[in-house]
Amino acid sequence: xxxxxxxxxxxxxxxxxxxxxxxxxxxxxxxxxxxxxxxxxxxxxxxxxxxxxxxxxxxxxxxxxxxxxxxxxxxx
Length: 76
Hints:
- By secondary structure, the protein is mainly alpha-helical.
- The protein has one domain (3-57).
- The protein is 70% helix and 0% strand.
- It has two helices and no strands.
- Helix 1 crosses helix 2.
- It is elongated and about 85 Å long.
- The mean pLDDT is 85.
């Protein structure tokens, strides 16, 4: 098993544990079981949006240089 497969397995295991904890919280009628995942999802979405915006803001514009046609005479 290579490194990416191990990482995938760990992520799947953590997701299963998180889902079980969520189900236990919902079964106990805990408000935090709903509020915390929604808050985490909003934080992740906001962070992703900020990252995309930052990337767009700091990316240099790639303006192509005008091609000079050496066969055409220059206007005088």
